[in-house]
Amino acid sequence: MKIAHYVKDRLLQKGADDVLVKYGQVEASHIKFSNNQIVKTGSEVLESLGIFASFKGRLVFTNLKQLNEKSADELVKQIGKFVKHVPVNKEYKGIAKAHNMYGKLEDCYDKRIIDMDEVDIVRKGINKALENGERTNGVFDKTIGKVFLVGSNGVEKEEEFTGAYFSLRAFFSGESPKIFRTSL
């Protein structure tokens, strides 16, 4: 999150009036299954930086993928060149002050997801679908992440979140796929 503060400070030094920088990190795991068998598993950690800046009503929104000071300096330099060609947005009234920001979002983080056994869930789903079907295909995704927001308005917020997505298609002899809904 040091990089978020660094980018904010560099943009303010470059002449920005308003700056918001959002750092996001997600640990994601993915399981794909086809013909009742798991065919692919994988996991990755993704990081990104979303940047919003106003230069006297000239608005810029961009992302930084390589999160280091050298890349940040190059991006700030490019923003400085680009913003000169952006028309002034006369509707822009500035970002809200930190004391006007919304409170913490509830129910975005479920620690049960951290210990979730994705392979076991997929196998149970396949077995349940095979009670009436012949073949299954689908995916299971699990995400655990955090978001950090820092701004020139005094805001400094951090949130954690989790998510799970399970899509299973069951095929029956001579019929179209049927959709069943259930909760984890």
Keywords summarizing the entry:
184 residues; alpha+beta; PmbA/TldD fold; five-stranded antiparallel β-sheet; 3 helices
- Strands ordered across the widest β-sheet: 3-2-1-4-5
What share of the residues lie within helices? 10-25%
Order of helices and strands: HEEEHHEE
Number of strands: 5
Q: What is the CATH architecture annotation?
A: 2-Layer Sandwich
Percent in strands: 35-45%
Radius of gyration: 22 Å
- Overall form: elongated
Based on secondary structure, the structural category is alpha+beta
- In terms of quaternary structure, the protein is single chain
Identify the CATH class.
Alpha Beta
Q: Separation of termini?
A: 33 Å
| CATH superfamily placement | PmbA/TldD superfamily
What is the number of helical segments per DSSP (H or I, 4+ residues)?
A: 3
Number of domains: 1
CATH fold-type name: PmbA/TldD fold
Q: Biggest sheet, open or closed, and with what strands and sense?
A: 5 strands, antiparallel
On the 0 to 100 scale, the average pLDDT is 90
- Low-confidence parts lasting 5 or more residues at pLDDT below 50? none
Provide a brief overview of the structure.
The protein is of the alpha+beta class and 184 residues long. 21% of the residues lie in helices and 41% in strands. The protein has a 5-stranded antiparallel beta sheet with strand order 3-2-1-4-5.
